[in-house]
Amino acid sequence: MNPATSIDRRSTRWDDHREQRRAELIDVARKLIHSDGPDVTMAAIAAASGTSKSIVYRYFQDKDELKQALGESILTRMTNKLEEGVRAGSTPEESIRTMVRMYVDSAASSVNVYHFVIQPSDGLSQFLEDCAALVAQSMEGILTGDRLHAWSVGTIGFVNATFQWWMDSDHSISKDQITTFIVSALLSGVLNDDNATPSALRGTL
């Protein structure tokens, strides 16, 4: 056997093991944030993983690196779900409705994790850009050019701000109701009556 090949295989196995172990530690951190809030310690993560802090530091230089990796993992998962929403929609309206529902369901599943991932970061900025691109993709052919870009970016801002208000409120309206309101406002416009169709909005753009 070629010694170089043997070394390469050992290196590959170590890389695979390292990535698997990092993923396991990230999952433990996510579960702790879900149950205890975003200020979990490296010691708590180590204890929940059945290991020591020194071992955790082999995979993450410090808590900030772990938080960054966790945020990227959660946001990537959410992006994948939203991409499913675009593919699942048979019409632009259905794509928007499905994406909003998936976003609300995912974010509302854990208040603590939601508040963790909305902290300003490069990962969050990329996530919002990706979301705007998905929204624009779903509305191609209905809006074009700058109008499509303006609507997609505005949609992300509206959905995030409205949902964050709902998460921080006393929840006097249900999750299904806030989802329906967001979709209706995006597709029909809040100034139209409840029976308005998406075409009412299109005519004003």
Automatic annotation (TrEMBL):
One Pfam family, short name: TetR_N
Keyword Secreted: no
Entries under Gene3D superfamilies matching the protein: Tetracycline Repressor, domain 2
Alphabetic keyword roster: DNA-binding
Annotated ranges, domain HTH tetR-type: 19-78
Keyword DNA-binding included in the entry's annotation: yes
Protein name: TetR/AcrR family transcriptional regulator
DNA-binding region coordinates: 41-60
The organism's taxonomic lineage, starting at the top: Bacteria, Bacillati, Actinomycetota, Actinomycetes, Actinomycetales
Superkingdom field: Bacteria
SUPFAM superfamilies per record: Homeodomain-like, Tetracyclin repressor-like, C-terminal domain
